Model the fold of this input.
Amino acid sequence: MHRDMIVRITKYDRNLRQLKNMGFERVFANNIGDPAGIPASVVRKDFSLLKIIGQKRGGYDIDKLIANLDHILGKNGSQNAAVIGCGRIGGALLRYNGFESDGIRIVAGFDINTRICEEENCPVPVYSMDRLEEIAARKNILLAIITVPEQAAPDVFHRLIDSGVRGFLNFTSSGLKAPRETNGDSEKNFDHIVVHNVNIGLEMEQIIYELNMADKQLV
Done:
């Protein structure tokens, strides 16, 4: 499945949950796509490719549709995640309570300063970095959000991989890539590692560029 389509399906899933909370029992393609700026025709095409069928006049049953999309997105159970680096960005993510509805449970934080959250009353324990492997294995952590200093990111990344972590959201400016092999061991397969690098500076530059282009078109 193409990544653009996965992004759209994720948006559909979020929109559907909001509609369900508003009391909707059945929805149409425009209800699902409009909040995300996605045409109803694209919604219907995506659902057709996924073999999700609605009624021409009755739309889609919202509970069945959410269940189908959750299955496609692999959200049939909660996945444990950790925040590595609990400074300003990491600390804010530790306290964010919106992950649960997406099937993600933050179960641990890691930092060189384990007292970083004492005054803030963090909702999850923050462990020393030297316990990374132990806690990752014990808590069955599948996902990691990395917000450590740039120079520390590669080492933390490889330690997490060795601990069984498979999914990474990297907020550092160090671009991380899944390794092909370790120490010449050709039997190791890292195809199951997924890394998304989020460079906030580059994203802001892109926004500035698009704003400048929009201004030029108005002149």
The longest strand covers residues 104-111. The chain has a mean pLDDT of 86. Residues 6 and 38 are 13 Å apart (CA to CA). The domain at 3-72 is CATH 1.10.10.10 (Arc Repressor Mutant, subunit A).
